[in-house]
Amino acid sequence: MTLGVVMLVHTGFGRAAQMARHWAEAGCPVIIHVDSNVAATQYDPFAQSLSEFPDIRFSTRHRCEWGTWGMVAATQDAATMMLEEFPDVQHVYLASGACLPLRPIEELRDYLALRSDTDFIESATTADVPWTIGGLERERFTLRFPFAWKKQRWLFDRFVQLQQILGLRRKIPENLVPHMGSQWWCLTRQTLDAILQDPNRAVYDRYFAGVWIPDESYYQSLVRLHARKIESRSLTLAKFDYQGKPHIFFDDHLELLQRSRCFVARKIWHDADVLYRSFPVAKDPERATEEPRSGRVDRVFSQAVKRRTRGRQGLYMQSRFPSSDRENAVGATPYAVLQGFDDVFPDFRSWLTRQTSAEVHGHLFAKDRAHFVDESTVYRGGLSDSARLRDYNGKMFLTNLIWNARDKHQCFQFGPADSQDIRWTLAKDTQASIWVVTGAWAIPLFASDRSASDVRAEAARLQRIEHKFLKSLRSPEARARIKIKTLAEFIEAPMETLQTIIDDIAGHRGTALTEVPQMADLTGLPDFLQDLKNQGMHPFLTGDITENAAAQTRTVPRRKPYVISQK
Prior knowledge:
Layout: E1 2-9, H1 13-25, E2 30-34, H2 40-49, E3 56-58, H3 70-85, E4 89-96, E5 100-101, H4 105-113, E6 118-120, H5 139-142, H6 153-166, E7 186-188, H7 189-196, H8 201-208, H9 218-226, E8 229-231, E9 236-237, H10 254-260, E10 264-265, H11 273-278, H12 294-309, E11 335-339, H13 341-344, H14 348-356, E12 359-363, E13 378-379, E14 383-384, H15 387-392, H16 394-404, E15 410-414, H17 423-428, E16 432-438, H18 442-447, H19 452-473, E17 481-486, H20 487-492, H21 494-506, H22 525-534, H23 547-550
Parallel strand pairs: 1-2, 1-4, 2-3, 6-8, 9-10, 11-15, 11-16, 12-15, 16-17
Antiparallel strand pairs: 4-7, 5-10, 13-14
């Protein structure tokens, strides 16, 4: 059984000549098509370098602009020459100058000999598989594309829009169901000859000449009319990124390509000397009949695409940094934001540290400086406590802090007196747990022993700021885990909220509270709030605090509701 190779070349002529020799030395006739855009100064030396091989021929040259009919016309002429001049050829393999055989050609030939009536070509309808990149799926078969997408992009887009607005549609030829797939196929002589000699070829050619990227649909569609047996897969390992651009294999992909056991791979970098020296591998009788295992490569590349587009939570890279739409989370790990608790409980930070062993910071976004857990001037990762440096990009300050200290659960205090540039970042971060006691800013004002008239303006300012923060938290765009209680609601039953915070931070290590933080003395707070109202400032975020609730100085520990004691 003889295998013929049609090779498309437009660049990298040194490597293309090397590959053509390799195919020819293995007994495969080769028909080479060189893009007509290639100058004679490059074409002539390339053709001359292969003149010693009688089974290497050159077909009529066409201009092969990406996405246009020239690519199909080139393969038609080359395939016709192959069938006419080499009658012993039973399978025709379409390759490029950047394709590299990974296994011995003899193994590929033996593999095809056992499947003499099978066509290997990826072929699927657009309705079944959403492969296309750029939004044109079915429309690529029903609209006209006279302009090149790469060189005439503006005209391409405007003409597509015009056809969509006017509702223009092309008629698909009768009995033809458009299919798509990889352009790198391996067809039997019978199927390829039937496609090229089809009585309706002129109709099909005229139709596909107006299809966008016809080299990915012409043979993929017509093979359905003539093939006896189709394996809808390519024998060439070719991977594409999330933008539809082909991946290039470099020397560091050596092990990955070895594991794939595929027959041919593209696109190989022209300077990947290690790959060109290592492949094809030596023939091994034990592996001669082994099936290609491209699934191994697929998994690696799918993970790479995910890492490329999604990245790791809380870690930024240049490719995703400019676009907020490509964020998957600001923080690398879950963290807690606590607002108002240190106002209600003066010793709250040390208490929370004892209960959870978490890293409990002070007000990281305070106006004077970032108050780290140990009140140091520099925290992990070289983060400075400078408010000016922090506020240059508060979002990145928070991201770096969480990333550099991701081995421990991070908690920090927040409040209306802090810099608020970070509020939307907190609200949208899926890693954040935000606990707010609204109106707790009134406690420091009350404890200052200043009259209501003296603190009225400050109370109004803090309430306006907190109200804006709450609007962010209650926005449909908020993605954080958010719990909000008024000061009145919280001081009446603080233990339930505190226990929930402990459970959230400590996880399975959380236990029922046995130690209660000392609450600030709130005796007289209702009168203070009433004085603010009398001054014309209504502290609505505090809630309605009664004198009995304010007079509480000690809370009783409450067991977790799900802990059941048995006698």
